């Protein structure tokens, strides 16, 4: 009886072990797995600052503190999340942009309500500027000296003037201008600060006060609501261009009036993630509607009819940002909503419309800084 | 992966031979002897005979009377608890599934909130619980559909007493944490009344070193983590001389808590929530010869209010009301040789009112009828089959569970196996949240298989229980919330297919000497839970976020002269990935607790107990949810009296 029992137990033991071993990687094939990640350097903390081409700012998953930066060198080397590795801590929650000021990088993180300041060469943290306001920090514009402007995505919106050389006697947020709506990307032209958002606003740099705030209007007197994360770009003629959910506007920075209004409703702009950018020679505008990229000549602005880039890929992915590099190639940040995983960056040639390269960035890549 | 599986097997074998746990029913008897005037009963099973079931002993319930159900489950079972901190929301998940796949029953009635779906286990004081059973997998279907991962059923018992019984517990703990509990129980002529009251409050402002927010680490106190929790439960039971039973139970539970933020966030606004739950239940049970029937009616009323405040002017508020009416009729017949038959009918009406759902209010009717047959082939072999027809609105669907049990070698080896199909309907938030609710959502569907080997040998005065289960689950149309349109609005969609497989093992060693009694317990869970959808995002075959591959806990309990007792518990939670492609993770941790107590008599009728507990003995920094630090070492001093 006991012998019989022993053999049964042994048999069951073997069966049980076999079942457990069958818990091996289940159907671990993936359509992306054959694509190289681009993490080609021997060390994740390698310094490529002498050959840096671009830095991808990855938002990370909201609430999870997975904001990161991905560096791309001119040789195609990719280094991911070096800030975390060098400083042994996460950069924060939901990174929005990156601005280089006097050999320092500034990255606003909107859910963390802070700006991380670090060394471009070593990535060592220099300072964490904590914003003790109920705001959603987004983009930075250097105003000169020790002042930067910081936009706020919250509906009650403020434009903050931040002191980058603050100290005990000098608060981080020097003052705030209440806008009452969301604000995003900025630029400086003609000694004026131009602020995109729910209204395209103009301030005189010398005063920068609420009383001096103007809103740019179109030919019919309507306000210009720029697409959320889209830039305000300046062309070779010194004209500004701003993209709204249906129309591309050129603006005379002197008169603050629109010059041309190009209706783009036919190309299906996304009022959230369509972008505008400009070629390195500042002669050609690039506008994207999802993965379709259209060009517009700044000297002869006309409605574009045919996209110069129109790749067909897995349609469940969405373009989260489009930017034009200094080599006049088009970069897409692509994300798959619902998938909390590292996403890919695709580079396209505007001449051929073909893909040149791709690499893996971080979670929700959203902004590209070209060095 | 095979290497890891083998490592897990070796670990289990080591565990099984030297430590390991489980919830022995015989242990319950020991504790019952300590309260000789109190007679208990075991809850009716909610699942098939071949399903994996875990019971938590009365001893554990008594020892943890001042804690919440989430803390107890973490320390004594292999299921995964995700907590935002002491007193904060805590959810439970079985076998690599989500918290929404855990069905929670109170005396057999589902109390998952219809709006949110997931149940907050921090809002159940152990003091209000007399028995807990965990049904692993999708096999527990008596309370209706929804348990794709498993079911937790906690019950109150009809405990009659020969003399009035009073129990008072007073506890003070670190971080200014007070707990008071009272139970008054009287019985006369078949009638029993039990009144329980519970109150706990905590400043919960422990200090920790924040290494993640800024360049320079800094010490800070946990902000906005204070909470108050109060509960009152009144039970009336009547049992006739013929054995008919009538019970009326009312339970009010109130929580007022601040909602702490992640430490990677500069929290500039304060958030608070208040929840109030009134749960009432009436049931009548009768047994005549081979006929056994029971009728239950329940009314559940829950409110959840949320406020966010920045400065004095800017305040956001959200109000939610959940109401459910439940009626349940059970009938079973045991008059046929070797065959038991049962039928179960459920009707449930859920109503929610909220400023966050379409039209401000929504409702849903659910009707289910269930039939069960249990056939005893021989003294060694039993089978059970169960099928349920459920109709939500106008949509009928069928779920089932089949299981078997084979006593292969007396007490040395029992084999159990089960297979079930279950589904989980979208919550009313999933369907009607404004904006973003998706009324076209399909139910999540889950197939579950498991096989269990169990052994309960006794030799040389040592009782040993070993139990090991292998499971495999296949869940289709997993619901996730993802951004749509302009990205500011999220909507739920049927997004993933998930495969979860792994093992659960537990063991108990129990032995006594002249003056001492010893119980060594342990649980181990291995969950390989992966997304099996092809989306081209490198997530196929990757472990789901916040599902640890390995979880174990082990405990040692000692009684000396039945007066001095001690308890040591260690629990381990493996690395949990925080991204779907396993590129980010949060640290594994092991936490140790130790407790010693002394029971003494003040008189023939008054007994007292004094105990000291140290939680997180080694002062470990750990996070159940990433960037939400848990308390460091905490001291608990407890004094209790029973008058009987």
Task: Characterise this structure.
The complex is a heterodimer of chains A (371) and B (644). Chain A is mainly beta and 371 residues long. Helices cover 7% and strands 41% of the residues of chain A. Chain A is built from two helices and 27 strands. In chain A, the strands form seven sheets. In chain A, strands 3-2-1-27 form a four-stranded antiparallel sheet. A four-stranded antiparallel sheet of chain A has the order 4-5-6-7. In chain A, strand 6 (114-118) and strand 7 form a beta hairpin. Chain B has 644 residues and is mainly beta. Chain B has a single domain, classed as TonB-dependent receptor, beta-barrel domain (Maltoporin, Chain A, Beta Barrel). In chain B, 7% of the residues lie in helices and 58% in strands. Chain B has a 22-stranded antiparallel beta barrel. The longest helix of chain B has 17 residues, at 2-18. Mean pLDDT of chain B is 87; it is low at 1-41. Classes of the chains: A mainly beta (371), B mainly beta (644). At the A-B interface, helix 1 and strand 7 of A face helix 1, strand 25, strand 26 and strand 27 of B.
């Amino acid at each position: 009886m006991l012998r019989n029992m022993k053999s049964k137990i042994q048999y069951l033991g073997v069966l049980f072990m076999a079942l457990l071993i069958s818990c091996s990687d289940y159907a671990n094939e993936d359509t992306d797995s054959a694509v190289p990640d681009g993490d080609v350097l021997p060390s994740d903390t390698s310094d490529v600052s002498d050959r840096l081409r671009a830095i991808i700012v990855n938002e990370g998953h909201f609430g999870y503190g997975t904001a990161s930066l991905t560096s791309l060198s001119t040789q195609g080397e990719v280094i991911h999340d070096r800030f975390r590795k060098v400083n042994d801590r996460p950069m924060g929650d939901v990174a929005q942009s990156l601005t280089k000021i006097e050999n320092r990088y500034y990255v606003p993180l909107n859910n963390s309500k802070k700006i991380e300041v670090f060394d471009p060469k070593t990535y060592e943290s220099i300072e964490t500027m904590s914003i003790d306001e109920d705001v959603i920090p987004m983009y930075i514009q250097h105003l000169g000296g020790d002042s930067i402007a910081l936009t706020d995505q919250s509906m009650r919106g403020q434009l903050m003037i931040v002191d980058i050389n603050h100290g005990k006697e000098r608060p981080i947020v020097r003052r705030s201008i209440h806008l009452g709506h969301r604000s995003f990307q900025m630029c400086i032209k003609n000694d004026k600060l131009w602020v995109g958002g729910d209204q395209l606003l103009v301030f005189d740099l010398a005063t920068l006060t609420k009383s001096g705030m103007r809103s740019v209007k179109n030919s019919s007197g309507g306000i210009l609501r720029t697409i959320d994360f889209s830039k305000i770009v300046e062309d070779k003629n010194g004209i500004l261009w701003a993209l709204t959910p249906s129309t591309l506007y050129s603006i005379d920075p002197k008169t603050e009036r629109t010059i041309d209004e190009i209706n783009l409703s036919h190309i299906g702009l996304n009022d959230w993630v369509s972008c505008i950018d400009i070629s390195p020679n500042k002669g050609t505008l690039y506008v994207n509607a999802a993965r379709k990229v259209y060009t517009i000549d700044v000297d002869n602005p006309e409605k574009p009819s045919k996209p110069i880039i129109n790749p067909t890929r897995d349609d469940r992915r969405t373009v989260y940002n489009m930017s034009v590099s200094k080599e006049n190639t088009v970069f897409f940040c692509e994300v798959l909503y619902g998938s909390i995983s590292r996403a890919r960056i695709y580079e396209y040639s505007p001449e051929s419309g073909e893909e040149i390269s791709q690499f893996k960035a971080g979670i929700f890549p959203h902004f590209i800084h070209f060095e | 992966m095979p290497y890891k599986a083998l490592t897990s097997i070796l670990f289990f074998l080591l565990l099984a031979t030297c430590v390991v746990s489980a919830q022995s029913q015989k242990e319950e008897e020991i504790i019952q002897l300590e309260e000789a005037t109190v007679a208990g009963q075991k809850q009716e099973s909610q699942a098939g005979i071949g399903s994996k079931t875990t019971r938590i002993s009365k001893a554990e319930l008594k020892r943890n009377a001042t804690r919440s159900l989430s803390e107890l489950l973490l320390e004594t079972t292999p299921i995964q608890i995700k907590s935002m901190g002491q007193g904060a929301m805590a959810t439970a998940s079985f076998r690599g599934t989500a918290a929404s796949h855990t069905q929670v029953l109170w005396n057999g009635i589902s109390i998952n909130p219809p709006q949110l779906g997931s149940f907050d286990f921090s809002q159940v004081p152990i003091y209000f619980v007399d028995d807990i059973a965990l049904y692993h997998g999708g096999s527990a279907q008596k309370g209706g559909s929804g348990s794709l991962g498993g079911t937790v059923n906690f019950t109150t018992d009809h405990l009659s007493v020969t003399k009035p019984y009073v129990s008072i517990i007073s506890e003070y703990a670190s971080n200014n944490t007070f707990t008071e509990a009272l139970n008054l129980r009287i019985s006369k002529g078949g009638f029993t009344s039990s009144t329980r009251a519970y109150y706990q409050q905590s400043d919960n402002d422990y200090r920790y070193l924040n290494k993640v927010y800024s360049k320079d680490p800094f010490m800070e106190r946990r902000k906005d983590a204070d909470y108050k929790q109060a509960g009152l439960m009144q039970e009336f039971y009547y049992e006739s001389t013929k054995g008919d039973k009538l019970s009326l139970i009312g339970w009010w539970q109130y929580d007022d808590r601040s909602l702490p933020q992640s430490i990677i966030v500069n929290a500039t606004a304060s958030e608070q929530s208040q929840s109030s739950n009134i749960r009432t239940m009436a049931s009548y049970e009768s047994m005549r010869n081979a006929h056994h029937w029971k009728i239950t009616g329940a009314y559940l009323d829950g409110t959840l209010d949320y406020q966010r405040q920045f400065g004095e002017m800017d305040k956001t508020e959200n109000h939610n009301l959940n109401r459910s009416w439940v009626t349940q009729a059970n009938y079973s017949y045991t008059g046929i040789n070797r065959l038991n038959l049962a039928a179960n009918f459920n009707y449930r009406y859920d109503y929610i009112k909220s400023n966050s759902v379409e039209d401000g209010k929504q409702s849903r009717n659910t009707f289910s009828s269930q039939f069960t047959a249990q056939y005893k082939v021989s003294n060694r072999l039993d089978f059970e089959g169960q099928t349920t027809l459920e109709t939500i609105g106008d949509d009928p669907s069928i779920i089932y569970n089949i299981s078997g049990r084979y006593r292969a070698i007396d007490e040395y080896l029992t084999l159990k196996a089960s297979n079930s199909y279950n589904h989980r309907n979208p919550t009313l938030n999933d369907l009607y949240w404004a904006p973003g609710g998706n009324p076209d959502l399909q139910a999540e569907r889950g197939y579950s298989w498991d096989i269990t080997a169990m052994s309960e040998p006794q030799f040389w005065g040592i009782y040993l229980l070993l139990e090991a289960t292998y499971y495999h689950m296949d869940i289709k149309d997993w619901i996730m919330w993802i951004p749509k349109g302009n990205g500011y609005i999220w909507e739920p969609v049927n997004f993933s297919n998930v495969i979860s497989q792994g093992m659960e093992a537990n063991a108990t060693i129990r032995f006594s000497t002249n003056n001492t009694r010893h119980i060594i317990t342990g649980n181990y869970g291995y969950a390989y839970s992966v997304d099996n959808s092809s989306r081209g995002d490198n997530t196929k075959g990757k472990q789901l976020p916040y599902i640890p591959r390995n979880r174990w806990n082990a405990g040692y309990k000692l009684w000396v002269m039945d007066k001095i007792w001690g308890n040591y518990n260690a629990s381990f939670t493996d690395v949990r990935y925080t991204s779907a492609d396993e590129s980010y993770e949060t640290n594994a941790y092991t936490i140790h607790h130790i407790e010693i107590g002394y029971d003494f008599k003040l008189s023939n009728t008054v007994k007292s107990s004094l105990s000291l507990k140290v939680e997180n003995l080694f002062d470990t920094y750990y996070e159940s949810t990433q960037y939400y630090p848990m308390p460091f070492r905490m001291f608990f001093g407890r004094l209790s009296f029973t008058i009987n």
